[in-house]
Amino acid sequence: MKSLTPAAGVALLVISSAGNGAALTLGGPLSQSCYEAALSGDATHFTVQSCDRSLTEEALTQRDRAATFVNRGVLQMLKGARGEADSDFDSAIKLDHNLADAWLNKAFLRLRDDRGGEALPLIEESIKLGPQRKALAYFARGLAYEDVGDLNAAYADLRRAHDLEPNWSLPAQYLARYQVVRNPSR
Fold it and tell me: What single DSSP character describes residue 11?
């Protein structure tokens, strides 16, 4: 029988979804600026303001409006404004229930607060809908499973994230914390 245990003494890394959870928008120049800021992790007052202005000044399609809420939410999350970020993700989901990255970023807020059990259904919805980066979704689910103590499922999802994006170093760093132990008595 195999058992998995995370190696002792390794702290949970802070997860930044910048560049990972941004939602593509084809709207106007302000929404494009908002998207680029979320993609690069440039969470300044000016970049959040470009998102605000896009939502009030540009004629966006419903999909682009939802994506802009996601991008502003990513920036708010990076700034530590969790309530505002959560509200933005809710607004995005209300506008476009099928926007996988809104669900995934909402889950990241829960993961940052060590609430993996609450993050799991949000991540499941994101995976079902097809996020832009599947590896990020599986990585998030791996963290959520770790948080609730399901180490076998956590390891499997971290492995899948690594297999999907082998050049992304974060899954490998987390996998390195695990030791696969064979129990010879079984």
Answer: P
Backbone angles phi, psi at 97, to 5 degrees: -60, -20
**Residue found by looking up tokens 């696969």 in the block:** 180
Radius of gyration of the chain from Cα atoms? 18
Residue range 72-97: mean pLDDT, rounded:
96
Q: CB count, 10 Å around CB of 42?
A: 16
Give the Cα-Cα-Cα angle 166, 172, 175 (nearest 5 degrees). 135
Under 8 Å between Cβ of 39 and 52 = no
The predicted-structure confidence for 105-133, as pLDDT tens digits, reads as follows 999 999 999 999 999 999 999 999 999 89
SS3 178: strand
Tokens of 169: 């170093």
User: Look-up: residue for tokens 């059990």?
Assistant: 117
